[in-house]
Design a protein that fits this description.
Strand order of the largest sheet: 2-1-3-4-6-5
Mean pLDDT: 81
Radius of gyration: 17 Å
Helix content: 10-25%
Strand content: 25-35%
Number of strands: 6
Structural class: alpha/beta
Length: 181
């Protein structure tokens, strides 16, 4: 809700939009593969059919965890993002209890790229990191006692922004140095 502009692009692995809370008027959502039940446009996340410097904000919703070439996805997002534009990345945290479950290929077959690695990649692409937050501190068990205490896990984790949440959110800004003639 705090990101402003004219065009907001979401890249992800599903057709679930996370852009409803945004005040931006023109919201784009591409799905990575054709489905007969959807009316959304289909586009490869690593080769977007958009002009360079044409989008004010990009949300990458778990797409880095599922794409075959994460570097290419980030470069393509940086290409379409305007100078000073915001990039929001949501990804799975390998250092969480959910990330440890990846050793058993459960619950998803995601790549679980760490937030520190993504931050390094963003710095190479001339992004400045505005903030990194962690969330979803619930343990990956179906025990009633843990589920009922979920709000306490979340409150404790958010209080210290502990890097043990199942999900991380990175907000970065595209930095472009002006060229002096």
């Amino acid at each position: 809700a705090r990101i402003f502009g004219y065009h907001f692009l979401q890249l992800g692995v599903s057709e679930h939009s996370m852009l409803e809370a945004s005040p931006i008027g023109h919201k784009l959502l591409f799905v990575p593969q054709y489905d007969a039940d959807t009316t959304l446009p289909v586009a490869n996340n690593e080769a977007l059919p958009l002009l360079s410097d044409s989008v004010d904000a990009v949300l990458i919703h778990h797409a880095l965890d599922y794409t075959p070439d994460s570097h290419r996805l980030l470069r393509e997002s940086a290409r379409v993002l305007m100078p000073g534009g915001k990039l929001v990345i949501i990804g799975f945290n390998p250092r969480s209890s959910w990330g440890m479950r990846k050793l058993f290929r459960w619950p998803w077959d995601a790549r679980y790229i760490s937030s520190s690695r993504v931050q390094d990649w963003l710095k190479l692409l001339d992004f400045s990191i505005d903030r990194v937050e962690h969330c979803a501190y619930l343990l990956p068990v179906k025990h009633t006692r843990f589920v009922n205490a979920a709000h306490r896990f979340e409150a404790f984790g958010k209080r210290f922004n502990a890097p043990l949440g199942a999900v991380y959110v990175i907000v970065a800004c595209k930095q472009v140095m002006p060229v002096t003639p």
